[in-house]
Specification:
The structure holds two protein chains of two kinds.
Chain A (H helix, E strand, L loop, with lengths): L3 E4 L2 E4 L5 E7 L5 E8 L3 E10 L2 E4 L6 E3 L9 E3 L8 E8 L8 E2 L3 E5 L1
Parallel strand pairs in A: 2-11
Antiparallel strand pairs in A: 1-3, 3-8, 4-5, 4-9, 5-6, 7-8, 9-10, 9-11
Chain B lengths: L2 E3 L4 E5 L4 E3 L2 E3 L5 E7 L6 E5 L10 E2 L10 E3 L8 E8 L8 E2 L3 E6 L1
Parallel strand pairs in B: 2-11
Antiparallel strand pairs in B: 1-4, 3-8, 5-6, 5-9, 7-8, 9-10, 9-11
Classes of the chains: A mainly beta, B mainly beta.
Chain lengths: 113, 110
């Protein structure tokens, strides 16, 4: 099993550009989530999903969109990138929710110039 | 609002010494608490959960509701314990949201 796969690992964007961070899991997990990690701030929840077709906002959702059309995939879209979105992004999944073990991806390092 | 505070950004102890990583939380209800760990060049992974009352790799954590704390402890540190440790809280029942602390980097000196 590959577990949780994030692509790309690194990305540089210009202000105003759009892009999608990909997250896929092959464990048939219902719960998927996106976090951003900034220096000195730990991980902050952006969006999460408890199953295909169901998404909800986390702590810091502004500037990001998500969708969950399949159980396996949970892409994160930046519609118009801003320098404040420079961060390391992590995708995580679990079988049914946060009370079960979260499996994390390896992260995407995003720089917005 | 739910908040998790890890007051130490860096913690350094000698091999064989006891380790305590502090975690304080802010939540008025009954919290569920977790410790996650990231070893060098590895992914973030669950270390232990309050609801499981388990001990993993010699680590334990006790929920103290009076002091709103969930400190992580190990009686004898090992070099392989060097890592970044995050405390996390889920407060509102049924809400699938984890709030993480800022993390503590633990270094075990030989």
């Amino acid at each position: 099993n590959a577990g949780v796969t994030q692509t790309p690992k690194f990305q540089v964007l210009k202000t105003g550009q759009s892009m999608t961070l990909q997250c896929a899991q092959d464990m048939n997990h219902e719960y998927m989530s996106w976090y951003r990690q900034d220096p000195g701030m730990g991980l902050r929840l952006i969006h999460y999903s408890v199953g295909a077709g169901i998404t909800d906002q986390g702590e810091v959702p502004n500037g990001y969109n998500v969708s969950r059309s399949t159980t396996e995939d949970f892409p994160l879209r930046l519609l118009s990138a801003a320098p404040s979105q420079t961060s390391v992004y992590f995708c995580a999944s679990s079988r049914r929710g946060i009370y079960e073990k979260l499996f994390f991806g390896s992260g995407t390092q995003l720089s917005v110039l | 609002a739910q908040r998790v505070t890890q007051p130490e950004k860096l913690l350094s102890v000698f091999k064989g010494a006891p380790v305590e990583l502090k975690c304080n939380y802010s939540y008025s209800g009954s919290p569920e608490l977790f410790w996650y760990v990231q070893y060098s060049r590895q992914r973030l992974q669950l270390l232990l959960r309050h609801i499981s009352r388990e001990s993993i790799k010699g680590f334990t954590a006790d929920l103290n509701k009076g002091e709103t704390s969930f400190h992580l402890k190990k009686p004898f540190a090992q070099e392989e314990d060097s890592a970044m440790y995050y405390c996390a809280l889920s407060g509102v029942q049924g809400a699938q949201k984890l709030v993480f602390g800022q993390g503590t980097r633990l270094t075990i000196n030989p």
